[in-house]
Every structure is written in structure tokens, then in C-alpha cells.
Design goal:
The chain is about 45% helix and about 15% strand. It contains 28 helices and 22 strands. The strands form 6 sheets. It has a 6-stranded parallel β-sheet. A 5-stranded antiparallel β-sheet has the order 16-15-14-13-19, with no helix packed on it. The two termini are about 60 Å apart. One of its GO terms (biological process) is telomere maintenance. It comes from Sphingobacterium nematocida. Keywords: ATP-binding, Helicase, Hydrolase, Nucleotide-binding.
């Protein structure tokens, strides 16, 4: 994980939201400036989806966006939890004693879970590099599912912190649709969990969870209706509230011809029946419009019908927001089919309120998965398949489940007797106001009872008075975690070991030279890892008690550690690898090996940059303002630092020329490195290119050292730089060896020219 390398410098807040919405702003700060797990909730219409989109566009962290169902994941712009973690469907109890009989076939303990999931190298890389996991519609996520995710992350990341150290952002409204658990499953789970709500997961019992609630309601403006909805949420619905709702009950209600009501029902078959009956009543030709499905797109995730049956005059609703500048429709807006211009791939939708007609074209939804791009250090989306269809569905009726997240101006609610927990609130909260409400049957008091566990949990929300204090504490803890992570060498050691092990059965030119180089690098990495481990232990002790931390001492110790590591990393890892690449890339059968070396060099350079900026982090810890000032520093890993240009690339020659000009203008190597955002070894490499032409070798190295290097090179002709380095010892660096090689090369060239003349 390399959180710190981008945290300090790529976090620039974009003020694209309501600056008066304090909760929104603080929630963004908790996500971007801390590693604190966060539950963001809010009543229907308070902007939870807007917040998710904002984080998606404005968070620097490597993230994955997930949801419990395919449709919810599609709406969130992510993937399902089961797809990301390869979870089996069933019950998870970590320490469950399996009997292996028929009733246990759907129960997974830790051992059976790991024997079932397929963690490929790419999937492991995603989970190892993940910094932020977003779970949308968390009201439907089961506690045992969350514990399975926790176990997987801890194992893959080898980190026993909750979720393996990954920050988790939970978004949702617990007063809406609850988790689905079968009776047989609950009989097994009830002895392990108080409820199936996500907050009763074992991983959250001993893990701090900041809880924030968005307050400003954008959907409803009717204060009386808002009050009723609030009372339903809080189990405080009064007789007067119930009377007010039931005053909208009509046994038989026939909408006026110009009124566009939608029926909300609890069962899918009822919604389908209503839609089909109304469609048949219309005169005219039926058009069956098939979706265009490409590649991998599971039917369960289809955002609308695969075959859309429409007639002119059919009542329809939009299932996406308009992305145009005029925003003529929103997700849930109801209209009617005015014209079917299918030869032009268009449907004209009109509105009975006199609104402007909308020409609708096919929209495309993408089924994505995440993959880790090591070269750019990003978690990226890969499109597996697409679903293309008109963003419409028949809208005489819809299930309450499918209505979640939609907004209606007029709705007939068919309550019946089969409401699950949360469904009354979901149905009512879809409406913009009471004036558009019609009840087919009266709502009984018992039908609007909110689960007491949800009510108790929601009492723990952080109030505005506590937010600032908790945020500053979390910011400092996060900075400390980044420091600890910055000095962990495991990733580098494993990368070197993996490359070394892979060479055993390779047919590479001058394999003994390769093995000698790998031995030198492995020895250096392990020595550095040993020192880093000791420093991390000390640092962990200094950060152990957040109430009594000597931040100045941490700053001083970090400064000393950075000064110890940087020159060793530069000489023993960066310069050595760069030199080895230059020597070996001209040999036969080394193409794959060189690619792997370049990836390793990229890891070394990134780690070097992370360490350089640890001083900035340590200094920020000594200040009251926490992390926010770090946004002003600039980019941590600049393109010039991490780019490894191919030999002969014009850009590489250009960057060498820039370095030469700065050197000839009087800047020394250290100054050029700082100004160009590069390591000193890279600057040396640029200047060495001009030794014998623009620069004299003794401008870069003492005559005494140069003479000794030349003597060793001449008496050990044919040996690699790694072997020469071992002969010369620690007093000599790879750039100095390269200068000697350049002098000999220039001398040989001059002799050939002289002989030819």
C-alpha cells in the first residue's frame, strides 16, 4: 500500500457542493483526510447519492465502489460485494464447526470460505492496494457478509486491523429496506448475531465507526409531511400522524386522464399485472424493443427490461437522470410515450403537466470489475460487458423495492398486509408531498414499527459539536498510520524475492551476472528492512497512546530515519537497478527480465519519494491544523520521477538536456534534483551521458576515485557493475562506476577515430 505517496499532494478539495452543508463537508474530510470508517446516512432525499458521486470524482484514494445487489451496484457505478470478494452465497460464521451433512452445505466457516473463493494474483493485488471500500445501500448488507469481507481482507493484506486496514465508507438509510435472511439461515445465525443489520457484524464490535447524518432534505418541501416521515423513522408515529396518512385512503381511486399516478406495491407479480393490463387497454401496435447486450452482463443486473414492450400512449418513467445541461427529467419522472421513432432509434416522451417533450435515445450501462494497474499505481475499472436500452420502464406500477432511490410526485400505495420492515417508510418517502399520496388500504399502526435495534443504533450519531474534535483526532491518527506504513519494507522485499525466485528456470544471457546482481539487491533490501522494522517498532510505541504523544520527538526521529534511508536507497537500489538495466537490455533473451526490472525500479523510486515526504507528515503532526496544509505541497510522485523511458526515446534525451543546461548554469546536482523532483542518481545519470563531450569526468568525481575505478575496470574486463561494486566496496556508488565506464568508452572511441584518420 502506498497511501502516503499521494495523500500529501493530490488531495485538493473541489468545492462542487453546497458550502452551507456542514455535514457533507465534514463527511468528505473524514473520507479524504483520515482512515476512519464512516457511516453516512440521511433521510430519503438528503443527498446520499450526490455524496457518493462527489467522492467518486474527488477522492485521491484507490477505491472500489460496491453494493449488495446488481442493480444497486449499477446505480452506484460499481460492482457487487460478492463479485469483488468472490463471496459464495450462504451463511458465514468464522469459527463454525461444520458437520458436512446436508443442512450445512450452505454454511461457510473461515476454512471453507478460503477453499471456495478464487483469489487470483490480480484479485489479491486489488485487495492489497485497496485504500477505500465504499458500500452503498448498506441497509441491505448482512452482518455475516461484512465479517466474511473482514476475514478476507485481513488474510490477503496480512493486517489484523479491522478490514485489514482498509477504510470503509458505508452509505445508506437503515430505515429503508433491511437485509434479506431466510428463516433457516436465521436459526443458525441467531446464536452468533443480535441482528442481521451491518452494524451487528463482529468486525464493528471493537472498531470505531463515525456516524454522520445528512440533514437537509431536498426531495420534500412539505414540513408537515417531513414531520410525519421523521416520526415513522423514530418509532414516534402518533395517532394524529396515522390519521393524517389514512385521510388519503380511497377504496376506489381512478386517476383523472391527465393525472400520472404510479402504483407502489409489495409484490413484483402485482406490479407486472397492473402494467400489462393497462398496456393492453391502449390502442395501437405493440413494439417489443430488445436491449443490446454485449459480452458479460448478468440478467440479474439488468437495469430495465431486456425486452421493453411499449405502445404509443404508454405511461413510462425514466430510470436515469438527465445528464444534459437543461436536465429535463430525473430518475423516477413519469411521462407517456408520444411517438415511437424506432427507425431513428428515438422515443419521444411527453408530459401531461405541459412540460417540454424529451427525445430519448438508448443509454448504455456498463458491467465493470476492478483491476490494479501497477505501472500507474491505480485501481482501474475494466468493462466486462454492456447493456444498451432506452432508459424507460412501464410506470403504471412498480415494486416498493425497485422504487428505492426514485422520486414521485403522485403515487398510489398498495399497502395490503405484506409489508416488510421499512417498506412503509420507503414507499411514503418516495413522494415529494402529501398532496400526491393515495392509499389503497389504510395503514395499521403495527405496519410502521421501526426495528428497535436500528433506532438504538441511530441514537449514536455524532453531533455537530463533536465533529471537529473527532476529525482532528482522526487526522492525526491517520498521519501516524501513514508514517508507520511508509517505513514498512515488506512490499519491496517481496517484490525482489519474487523476481529472484522466478529466475531459477529462466534462460537468460550471463545468468551468473544476473544472480550476482539479485544477491546484492536482496542483501541491501533485507538490511534496510531490518532497520526499518526497528524504527517502526519505536514509532508504534511513540504513537500508542493518542492522548500523550510527543509529536516533536516523532518529527526528530523521522528526520533522522529519512536521512539514513535516502542515500542507501539511492545508491544500493535505485542506481544499482538502473545501471543493471542499462547493461542487460542490450543482451539476448532479456526482454521479460528487463520489463520486470523496470517495474522493480519503479517501486524503488516510489518508496524513495514516500520517504522524502515523511518529513512533511511529521512536521504536520506538530501542528494543530492536522493534515489540511499538506494539500499545498504539490505532487509527490511526478512523471519525471517515475517514468522509465525506453532507450532512444526523444523525451529522455530532452530531459537529459534540461539537466545539462541547469548544470552548466551553475546548479549543483542536489539543487537540480530538488528543482526537477528527481533523485540525485537520476541527475548523475543525465550528466554522465555527457562525460567526455560537454562535461569532464573529474567535475563529477575526484581524480583519486576515478583512477582506482579505472584500474579495477581494466583488470576485471567483462564483469557486470554489480560484480565491480562488490570488488570496490561500499565507498563507491553505481554512478561513480558508470562514470569510469563512460571514460573508458570515450577513450576507446577516440582511439578508433584516431586510428581511422
Amino acid at each position: 500500500m502506498r497511501t502516503s505517496k499521494r495523500l500529501l499532494l493530490q488531495y485538493i478539495m473541489k468545492q462542487q457542493y453546497d458550502n452551507e452543508n456542514k455535514i457533507f463537508k465534514k463527511a468528505v474530510a473524514f473520507v479524504n483526510q483520515t482512515n476512519q470508517n464512516l457511516f453516512l446516512t440521511g433521510k430519503a432525499g438528503t443527498g446520499k447519492t450526490t455524496f457518493l458521486r462527489y467522492i467518486r470524482d474527488n477522492c485521491y484514494k484507490k477505491m472500489a465502489i460496491t453494493a449488495p445487489t446488481g442493480v444497486a451496484a449499477m446505480n452506484a457505478g460499481g460492482t457487487t460485494l460478492h463479485a469483488l470478494f468472490w463471496l459464495p452465497f450462504g451463511v458465514f460464521i468464522e469459527d463454525y464447526a461444520l458437520k458436512w451433512d446436508e443442512q450445512d452445505h450452505n454454511i461457510y466457516n473461515k476454512s471453507r470460505l478460503f477453499s471456495t473463493i478464487k483469489l487470483t494474483k490480480q484479485r489479491r493485488a486489488i485487495l492489497q492496494e485497496l485504500e477505500l471500500l465504499v458500500i452503498d445501500e448498506v441497509s441491505m448488507v448482512r452482518a455475516d457478509t461484512l465479517d466474511a469481507i473482514d476475514v478476507i481482507l485481513k488474510s490477503v493484506r496480512r493486517d489484523m486491523r479491522p478490514f485489514g486496514g482498509v477504510q470503509v465508507l458505508f452509505i445508506g438509510d437503515l430505515y429503508q429496506l433491511p437485509p434479506v435472511v431466510k428463516d433457516a439461515e436465521w436459526q443458525v445465525l441467531r446464536s452468533h448475531y443480535s441482528s442481521m443489520f451491518f452494524f451487528d457484524a463482529k468486525v464493528l464490535r471493537n472498531s470505531a465507526l463515525v456516524k454522520l447524518e445528512l440533514q437537509q432534505i431536498y426531495r420534500q418541501q412539505d414540513t408537515g409531511f417531513i414531520s410525519v416521515l421523521n416520526n415513522i423513522r423514530n418509532n414516534q408515529c402518533t395517532a394524529a400522524d396515522l390519521d393524517l396518512l389514512n385521510s388519503h385512503h380511497h377504496d376506489v381511486f381512478v386517476p383523472a386522464q391527465d393525472d400520472q399516478y404510479i402504483t407502489l406495491t409489495s409484490h413484483n407479480r402485482i406490479a407486472e399485472q397492473i402494467n400489462q393490463e393497462e398496456l393492453v387497454k391502449l390502442a395501437g401496435r405493440m413494439h417489443n424493443i430488445k436491449a443490446i447486450v454485449k459480452d458479460d452482463f448478468q440478467q440479474g443486473a439488468f437495469p430495465t427490461e431486456e425486452t421493453l414492450a411499449l405502445k404509443e400512449g404508454a405511461q413510462v418513467m425514466f430510470i436515469k437522470n438527465d445528464v444534459g445541461e437543461d436536465r429535463k427529467y430525473f430518475n423516477g419522472k413519469i411521462g407517456f410515450v408520444k411517438e415511437l421513432l424506432l427507425d431513428k432509434h428515438q422515443i419521444v416522451v411527453g408530459f401531461k403537466d405541459g412540460g417540454e417533450d424529451v427525445v430519448v435515445k438508448r443509454e448504455t450501462w456498463e458491467n465493470i470489475k476492478y483491476k490494479y494497474n501497477k505501472g500507474e499505481d491505480k485501481i482501474e475499472e475494466e468493462v466486462l460487458g454492456t447493456f444498451s436500452q432506452y432508459p424507460l420502464r412501464l410506470a403504471w406500477a412498480i415494486t416498493i423495492h425497485k422504487s428505492q432511490g426514485l422520486t414521485f410526485e403522485k403515487a398510489i400505495i398498495d399497502a395490503g398486509t405484506s409489508f416488510a420492515s421499512g417498506q412503509v417508510y420507503v414507499a411514503l418517502s418516495r413522494l415529494t408531498g402529501l398532496e400526491g399520496l393515495v392509499l389503497r388500504s389504510k395503514i395499521a399502526a403495527h405496519a410502521i414499527r421501526t426495528d428497535y435495534q436500528v433506532v438504538d443504533f441511530m441514537k449514536q450519531l455524532l453531533d455537530e459539536g463533536e465533529m471537529d474534535k473527532v476529525l482532528v483526532q482522526c487526522q492525526r491518527v491517520f498521519l501516524g498510520q501513514i508514517l508507520l506504513q511508509s517505513f514498512r519494507w515488506t512490499t519491496l522485499t517481496e517484490a525482489v524475492q519474487e523476481l529472484s525466485d522466478s529466475l531459477a528456470n529462466r534462460n537468460i544471457d550471463n545468468k551468473p551476472g544476473v544472480e550476482a546482481f539479485m544477491l546484492v539487491v536482496m542483501t541491501a533490501v533485507k538490511q534496510q528492512e531490518g532497520v526499518a522494522h526497528k524504527f517502526v517498532t519505536q514509532l508504534y510505541g511513540m504513537l500508542a497512546n493518542p492522548e500523550d504523544v510527543d509529536y516533536q520527538k516523532i518529527c526528530d526521529r523521522t528526520s533522522s530515519a529519512v536521512q539514513w534511508f535516502l542515500p542507501r536507497m539511492e545508491s544500493e537500489l535505485i542506481d544499482a537497478t538502473a545501471q543493471h538495466i542499462e547493461e542487460w537490455q542490450v543482451r539476448k533473451r532479456t526482454k521479460k527480465y528487463i520489463q520486470e526490472l523496470k517495474a522493480l525500479l519503479l517501486d524503488f523510486k516510489r518508496k524513495y519519494e514516500v520517504l522524502k515526504h515523511c518529513l512533511t507528515i511529521a512536521t504536520a503532526l506538530t501542528k494543530e491544523e492536522g493534515i489540511e496544509d499538506l494539500a499545498l505541497v504539490g505532487n509527490i510522485v511526478k512523471d519525471d520521477t517515475v517514468a522509465i523511458a525506453d532507450e532512444g526515446d526523444g523525451k529522455e534525451l530532452d530531459t537529459k538536456q534540461v539537466t545539462l543546461e541547469m548544470y552548466l548554469d551553475g546548479f549543483d546536482i542536489a539543487q537540480i534534483a530538488v528543482k526537477r523532483g528527481m533523485v540525485e542518481g537520476t541527475i548523475y545519470g543525465h550528466l554522465i551521458h555527457y562525460v567526455g563531450t560537454e562535461i569532464d569526468a573529474e567535475d563529477l568525481i575526484s581524480k583519486e576515485k576515478l583512477d582506482h575505478i579505472l584500474m579495477v575496470l581494466k583488470t576485471n574486463e567483462g564483469k557486470s557493475s554489480s560484480e565491480i561494486k562488490m570488488i570496490l566496496g561500499d565507498a563507491y556508488g553505481y554512478p561513480e562506476i558508470k562514470i569510469g565506464q563512460k571514460v573508458l568508452e570515450t577513450s576507446d572511441t577516440n582511439q578508433e577515430v584516431g586510428a581511422g584518420s
